[in-house]
Design brief:
This protein has about 350 residues and is an alpha+beta fold. It is about 20% helix and about 30% strand. A hairpin with a 5-residue loop joins strand 13 and strand 14. The longest helix is centred in the first third of the chain and has 19 residues.
Amino acid sequence: MAPFFTYMHIKVTRQDGQSALRLFYAMEPVLEDPAEGESLAEVEEAAYALLRSHVRAIDDSEDSLLLTYLETALDYMEALTNRILGLSDVVVYVNRDELKRPFVVHRVQDVLRLWKLEYRSLDADSVAPWSKPYKMFEPTLPDVVISTKLAGLSDTAIAMESDDKTSFNMYLELTSTSGLTQILCDLEKLNEASGAYVNEGENQVVINTFNSTSILIHSATGQGHNHERGTYRWKIQVTDSEEDPSTNYLYFTIHNGTDFDNIIITDRYPCYFDLSKYEDAIGSTQLYATDEEDFARIYMIAGTDLMAVPRQYRQAALLLVGHYYNMREAENIGSITTEVKEGVHRLLQSVRQY
């Protein structure tokens, strides 16, 4: 099926660390040991000096104004070349009809991470509120098989972190500890290639004393104890004074909200998405709104680092900053400024994305 070309709503916010001055950094600053390279202050001063020299500023009293002009120049060049300049947080809003077929996303390039997909949901009154209208898709887990001796396993604060690993605590809730002699808890992960669950090795917990009916059996909140996304299960062997050991299982999934059949290609331009099975994966229509507009939203980190953009951008930025600096009024009467605009267009024509 051919991809669907559409002009969808894209929100781009340049990250705080991507100062517009990075466009003129001579080298990556080495802050830990300035002796190995220029410090951040030195690199920024060199960038300001270049801007002052270009506009013939007398001193540094107008540096904040020059930075504003440079940021404005970046925004203009982004629109002109259809590129994201500087690492940015990107949110792509997709209409419901657009999800039903493959589609491509223009303007977004150099995707560093695609980390969340949400759908427009209903609240308790079956109304789609605009204050908090979106939810993550959570896959259906296998049925829980648990002994009558156990009230179950309760999981607390399972959440994906920025490093694509999860942090959570797992508790064993017992209806009664009477007669229990030992509980063995083994954490196993599904091997998707073989379909078998594999023991996680060091994650076996042996419980011999029962001072409480609520026992912490696993904590993955410390450094090095987080788990990759995937399907897991606890294998729980219960031994008491009257019966033979019984084996019980509880399943759970660590995911990033996109656990369904899909095709997402971000290492090409334009990005390619096939999320046609997303709505079916969500399931009941009672979960999501019937709105067509902005039915789903995709979160990405994308954009070319300002230190890595082609040199045409640097020269075009200087032309624009010089123009803004010398033309202080909203309108210019009695002269023609077409040549400045044409110069910028000609510089950036070879690096424009279509």
